[in-house]
Write a structure and sequence with these properties.
Structural class: alpha+beta
Shape: globular
CATH class of the largest domain: Alpha Beta
Bound molecules: adenosine-5'-triphosphate, magnesium ion
Number of helices: 12
Radius of gyration: 20 Å
Distance between the termini: 45 Å
CATH topology of the largest domain: D-amino Acid Aminotransferase, Chain A, domain 1
Number of strands: 17
C-alpha cells in the first residue's frame, strides 16, 4: 500500500512514521527540499498547487492525504479522479475561512461565540458596538498560532485594529469569551463510517501558540465530555468525513463553545502516540487507505510540552523517566515548533509534576 502526503512538516513526518510501521510506502509533496517529512520518506519537490506534481504524487499513491489545511483546493481536483483524497475537500473548504467554519458550527447545532463578517471600518465600529463587550478581530483565512489577530477592548481600539489588519484579506470580529479553560477533542471517521474518539484534552496556549496539553482533561464532567463528542460527531457526519479531525473548544458557564476545527491531525493530539494504543497519526493513515480504524485505548494520564524556538540538548530531557522526546529535524527559530515532549505516568499529579520540571529545564 502507498500513501501520498501533501505537506512535509512535522505532521507529515509523524504520519510517515505511523504509515511506515504498517509497511506502507510514503511519498511527500513539499516545495522545501529536505523538509521535516522529506527526511524520513521519499519526497517530490513541488508546490501544493502544481498540478503536474500532484499527478506525479497520485501516480505513486493508493490514497492521498494532507497535513496542512491551507492547501489550495482547486488544483486538488486533478487528483480526485485518480486516487481518493481523504479527508475530501469539503472539510478543507469549510475550515479555511473562519466565517464559513463558524457558520457551519451553528448550522449543525454547536454553540459558538458571537461573530460577524467585517469589510470596512464602519462595519467594525457597528459590530463592535453591537457585541457589547471585548472582542478579537481576526483574519478569516490563513491565521495560525494566534497570528492575524487584534484585540479590541474599547471603542478607542477600533481604528488601530482595523488599520493593522485591513490589508490581510477579509476579516471577522469575534466576541471574546471569558472561558474557564480550553479543550480539544480529536476524532476519526473511517471510510466505512465507523468513528473513534480520543479522550478530551485540556490545552494551554502561550503567546497564541499551543504550549502544553493534558489528557484526559482533569475533572471533566460527563456532560461536557458527551457534548464534546456529540459536537465532533455532528461535524464528521455533516462533512461525510473520512480521516482525523481536531476540534478546539472553550469550556464556559453555558457549556462548550466551538472555536475552530482542523481537517487533519493536530498538535493537541501529539500525546496520543505514547498515551493511547492507536495514535491520531495511525488512525489518519488507516482512514485514508480505507483500513479499519483503531479504537484508541488510554494508556494513562499523558502530558505534552511543545518545544518552541531553539533545539534543546537531548540528554537532560532524556534523563527523565517516562518521557518521550520528539524532534522534527527542523532548525531553531524564534516561535517555531521544533519538537515536543510527552510524559505518561500512573497518575495525573505525577504527569503534572514532571511536565513542570521539564518546562523549567527548557525555559532555563
Ligand atoms: P491555531 O494555532 O490553533 O491555529 P489560530 O491562530 O487559528 O490558532 P485561534 O485558535 O482562533 O487562532 O486563537 C488562538 C487562541 O486565542 C485561542 O486558543 C484562545 O486562547 C484565544 N482566542 C481566540 N478566539 C478567542 C475568543 N473568541 N475568546 C477568547 N479567546 C480567544
Ligand atoms: Mg486555534
Amino acid at each position: 500500500m502507498r500513501l501520498g502526503i501533501i505537506g512535509g512538516g512535522q505532521l507529515g513526518r509523524m504520519l510517515a512514521h505511523a504509515a511506515q510501521r504498517l509497511g506502507i510506502d510514503v511519498t511527500i509533496l513539499d516545495a522545501k527540499e529536505n523538509c521535516s517529512a522529506g527526511q524520513v520518506a521519499r519526497q517530490i519537490v513541488g508546490a501544493y498547487d502544481d498540478t503536474d506534481k500532484l499527478r506525479e504524487l497520485a501516480a505513486v499513491s493508493d490514497a492521498i492525504t494532507y497535513e496542512f489545511e491551507n492547501v489550495p483546493i482547486e488544483p486538488l481536483a486533478a487528483l480526485d479522479e485518480k486516487v481518493p483524497l481523504r479527508p475530501a475537500p469539503k472539510g478543507l473548504a469549510a475550515a479555511q475561512d473562519r466565517l464559513t467554519e463558524k457558520t457551519l458550527f451553528r448550522t449543525v447545532g454547536m454553540q459558538t461565540t458571537d461573530f460577524a463578517a467585517v469589510d470596512s471600518l464602519e462595519d467594525l465600529e457597528r459590530e463592535f458596538a453591537a457585541m457589547n463587550g471585548t472582542c478579537i478581530l481576526k483574519t478569516r483565512r490563513f491565521g495560525y498560532d494566534g497570528k492575524g489577530q487584534a484585540r479590541i477592548d474599547t471603542q478607542e481600539d477600533v481604528p488601530a485594529a482595523w488599520y493593522e489588519l485591513e490589508d490581510s484579506g477579509p476579516l471577522i470580529l469575534e466576541k471574546r469569551i471569558d472561558f474557564k479553560r480550553e479543550l480539544a477533542i480529536i476524532a476519526a471517521r473511517g471510510a466505512d463510517g465507523n468513528e473513534a474518539f480520543y479522550p478530551v484534552t485540556q490545552t494551554h496556549h502561550r503567546n497564541g501558540i499551543l504550549h502544553r496539553t493534558l489528557a484526559p482533561a482533569p475533572a471533566l464532567s460527563d456532560e461536557i465530555e458527551q457534548q464534546a463528542r456529540s459536537y465532533v460527531d455532528k461535524l464528521l457526519k455533516r462533512l461525510d468525513y473520512v480521516g482525523v479531525l481536531a476540534l478546539e473548544l472553550f469550556e464556559a458557564d453555558r457549556g462548550l463553545l466551538a472555536n475552530e476545527f482542523a481537517p487533519r491531525v493536530h498538535n493537541s493530539g501529539h500525546w496520543t502516540i505514547e498515551g493511547t494504543t492507536c495514535s491520531q497519526f495511525e488512525n489518519q493513515v488507516r482512514a485514508a487507505l480505507g483500513l479499519p480504524l483503531g479504537e484508541p485505548m488510554l494508556r494513562g494520564p499523558t502530558g505534552m510540552l511543545n518545544l518552541i524556538g531553539d533545539v534543546p540538548p537531548r540528554a537532560p530531557i532524556l534523563a527523565h523517566p517516562n518521557t518521550a522526546l520528539h524532534l522534527y529535524g527542523k532548525s531553531g527559530r524564534a516561535g517555531r515548533k521544533i519538537g515536543h515532549i510527552t510524559v505518561t505516568e500512573a497518575t495525573e499529579s505525577k504527569v503534572l509534576k514532571r511536565i513542570d520540571e521539564l518546562e523549567t529545564l527548557i525555559d532555563a
